[in-house]
């Protein structure tokens, strides 16, 4: 099999073709509202990010990290920011391009691995917007280190991520019965935790490969890079087909600042 970064790039390209909810571009109406100052975006499935986490967007340089799909980057650009969309999927970036061309927005598009932002100089951005995506990335510390490097002093990192305990449940059983059953130990990886025939099914479906990450990796990793965590909230799938919602919020978002 190809390496994980390339495999997941191709898997997300395929999800665009299948109309996954995180690949559907925003409407002209949403862009019009953003231009009028009436905008919101999500780091996690359903809860809007507090507006005070952003500050004034006018003229600010924002890196939308692993955030392609024609959703958050165009909205932030319409709200007045100078936006760079950096994603591992060509098709997700094409969705950003589609909205930008349709609405007359300027968005810089860059394809690459979130752990390598070497094309950007130190202190290039005022804000990084990084919605739930690092469950598709094997290592987090290089990402946090790079985010810290490319942010200007006082800049913010807004991140959404999946709670690690979500990965203890047998998602195959959940698909079959709609019930939760504890099966896996942490850390979880598709490649290391599934039986060979189950992994083969994942590959044949073209699903992105996933990795659990501890809170130490997620939050501690940000502080190890030098960030100060100044905000946090939890979120649910807000989906009646997701039984985890009956028991706990499955997602966390953090706001971190570079001193």
Produce a short descriptive summary:
This protein has 259 residues and is of the alpha/beta class. It contains nine helices and seven strands; from the N terminus they run ααβαβαββαβααααββ. It has a single domain (4-163, 212-257), classed as 3-Layer(aba) Sandwich (Rossmann fold).
Describe the protein's topology.
Layout lengths: L3 H14 L10 H8 L25 E5 L6 H7 L3 E6 L2 H14 L3 E5 L13 E6 L10 H10 E12 L8 H7 L12 H4 L2 H10 L9 H11 L2 E8 L15 E7 L2
Parallel strand pairs: 1-2, 1-4, 2-3, 4-5
Antiparallel strand pairs: 5-7, 6-7
Describe the protein.
It is a single chain. The protein has helices at 4-17, 28-35, 72-78, 90-103, 141-150, 171-177, 190-193, 196-205, 215-225, and strands at 61-65, 82-87, 107-111, 125-130, 151-162, 228-235, 251-257. The protein has 259 residues and is α/β, with parallel strands linked by helices. A seven-stranded mixed beta sheet has the order 3-2-1-4-5-7-6, sandwiched between helices. Helix 2 runs parallel beside helix 3 and helix 5 (141-150) packs parallel to helix 9. The model has no long low-confidence stretch (mean pLDDT 97).
